[in-house]
Design a protein that fits this description.
Elements (H helix, E strand, L loop, with lengths): L1 H10 L2 H17 L12 H17 L7 H9 L12
């Protein structure tokens, strides 16, 4: 969520929409048997699929000033939760 917010603020409102869309499309091309609704993913599937989906999103984010440095700072933050539904 923090990465998407960062892109929205720094790349404009269309940035995250197209970046996430590209990442999701690529994810399902590479994982055709993954359930289409992530809410139904088992904990094991989340552990397998989420890192891949996040990496695809990272690779396809809109260009931004210092985008990679901001990604790393957010990624290393100690105040963010990995729990689904938490903000």
């Amino acid at each position: 969520m923090a990465q998407i917010t960062d892109e929205s603020v720094n790349a404009g409102p269309n940035g995250p929409h197209s970046s996430i869309g590209r990442a999701v499309d690529l994810f399902y091309k590479q994982n055709p048997n993954a359930p289409s609704d992530p809410n139904t993913w088992t904990p094991e599937q989340r552990n397998e699929f989420e890192p891949e989906l996040i990496q695809l999103y990272r690779e396809h984010r809109s260009p931004m000033t210092d985008g990679e440095d901001r990604w790393k700072r957010i990624e290393q933050s100690q105040c963010l939760s990995d729990d689904p539904g938490s903000l």
